[in-house]
Amino acid sequence: MTSSDIVSIVKLVILGALLSLSSARAVFAVGQMEQEHLPALGASNSADGDEAVANSSRLAGAAPVLEIPTQQQGAALSAASNLHLEPEQLLVQANQAYENGNFAAAVKGYEALVQNGVQSGRVYYNLGNAFLRKGSLGRAIAAYLRASHYSPRDEDLRANLAFARRSTKDALDPPQTTALWRTLLFWHYSLGWSELCWSLGVTNVLFWCILGVRLLRKDSELLGWATWTLAIPLLALSGSWAFKTLAPRELAVVTSQELAVFAGTSQDSVLRFKLHEGSEALVLDQQGDWAMIALSDGKRGWVKRDQIEEVTMGGWRRGW
Fold first, then answer.
1. Entry pTM
2. CA distance readout (Å), 48 to 45, 54, 160
3. Which of 75, 99, 211, 246 has its CA 20 to 30 A from that of 205?
4. Which domain holds residue 91?
5. Domains held by the chain: number
6. For residue range 183-215, what is the model confidence (pLDDT) as tens digits?
7. Sequence-ordered alpha helix ranges (H) in the chain
């Protein structure tokens, strides 16, 4: 082996170490944000949406709860973020408020968790249930959409989101990718954010380790096949991670009872149509207090941003 070969191998090992370190850092960050040990409010798997939502008040594997009088829960949870309570304490108080029927206080508790950096499918799922019980249909759908970014295969989440969508007045089809693309890129749409990061991190480490050994043993056909076998999922997972990070989908959910959609960024412009609470659309552009949205049927127009909730489906941004 020549000195140039040794230098090339060292460069590749250093590059692989840096990429592996980057993947490990991403995985660690996801683990810190999601806090998967936090219990969730469990919903029934019944096909009947009403029963699914009705059973969503049952705690699934929750720790012992603090007995806080109902009238004091709102004040306790409002001050929770200022007191810098541990995530487990915030969750216990929010769950207790939910069980006692104080859904406004439960919403404050789950939102305090998100503000403290605990962003997971379970927390957003609980938040969606609390909003739905509180009567905030649009914000419930937005929370369920954020939960689906972390838990896209969760059956309880799918059932409650479907129920909430059936409760909307406009009955519009939500903006979705075609079934063909969802089948061809199954890993991109079926893996949650933490699953994607873990898969990418492990595949990345294995690829560079095997590639390093392959350069030392160039006559090994088995190592050659293993390198190419790992290169394919590594490229697929890397592309999915990059797409979700650099080009996340921007959705809008109507949160007001009625939303006017205009032809321009002024209420004096032509009124094109109206939407109602819970309707979903793609966000195409933002200009100050206005956002351009597009419906699944092709209609588009400008709306006031304070009457919608914008949901970023992907990326590292807060408020997923």
1. 0.72
2. 8, 10, 10
3. 246
4. 35-167
5. 3
6. 888 877 777 778 888 888 889 888 888 888 887
7. 3-34, 49-54, 70-78, 80-83, 87-99, 103-115, 121-134, 137-150, 155-166, 179-184, 186-190, 193-216, 221-246
Taking 80 as the threshold, does the pLDDT of residue 79 lie above it? no
Please indicate, yes or no, if residue 234 is contained in any of the structural domains. Answer: yes
Residue 136 domain flag:
yes
Does 319 reside within a domain? no
User: Same structural domain for residues 117 and 94?
Assistant: yes
Residues 183 and 305 in one domain: no
Residue 320 lies in a domain: no
Spell out the long-range contacts of 140-143 with Cβ–Cβ below 8 A and sequence spacing 24 or more.
Answer: 140/164, 141/165, 141/168, 141/253, 141/278, 141/280, 142/253, 142/255, 142/309, 142/311
* Summary mean pLDDT of the chain: 77
- Residue 296: how many other CB atoms lie within 10 Å: 13
* Most confident of the ranges 39-43, 225-229, 297-301: 297-301
DSSP run (H or E) holding 42: strand 40-42
Buried residues in 1-24 as b, exposed as e (16+ CB within 10 A): eeeeeeeeeeeeeeebeebbeebe
Q: Domain boundary at 115, 138, 167, which?
A: 167
- Indicate whether 94 and 214 sit together in one domain: no
- Dihedral (Cα; 146, 152, 157, 161), 10-degree rounding: 70
